[in-house]
Amino acid sequence: MVKKKLDQIVYEQIIRQIENGQLLPREHITEQWVADELQISRTPVRKAFVRLEEDNYLEMIQNIGVRVKTQKLDSKSFQDRVNFIERLLNHYLFDLEKKEQTFDSSQLQNYLATMHEQMNKENSAFEEIELDYWCDLLKYSENVYTKDSIMKAIQNILFDEGFIDQMMKKNRALKSKHLEYLVDYLTEDNYIKARREIRILMNQLKLNVIEENYKYN
Asked: pTM of the predicted model, to two decimals?
């Protein structure tokens, strides 16, 4: 059996970590970090990085370094992720209901106020704050893996650099409205209505993406 070259091993390892969510879009990585993880020298890592950039897995940013390149989502990939997020969020809220958890929504309200200020701006500040919103929503999660899985899926959607990114910006007002309703229900510890609001928001986002995708295809 032919033994794989070290740079090929690094190449395949990075792709695997990107695809299974261990490495997130826009996450910075260094040659030294990879070399230490695999206990090899930096030379094969450097070679692998060049190939990974050529194949659109990594990008070299001047004065910043190497980071994971955002993979553009299509409509089907978007729907799969949204369904995944909805299922895990509903399970999380159901657990809070069973535990009769009193939800402190004060920070969520602060995030919403800041999101409103960024609503019409062209940059991604709105989405950065929205990510913080979802993270705070999950603060009572006792399952670190579940929380990380949800956050990775949300981040993947919010910072897609193609069609989905445009749709997320286009739907800022819609998201804000439903996230406000969600805060209201959480403030009342009304987890039944909170789960319903999640379902309504996710279904509306999926429908809007499907309609927009159909329009241009």
From this structure: 0.74
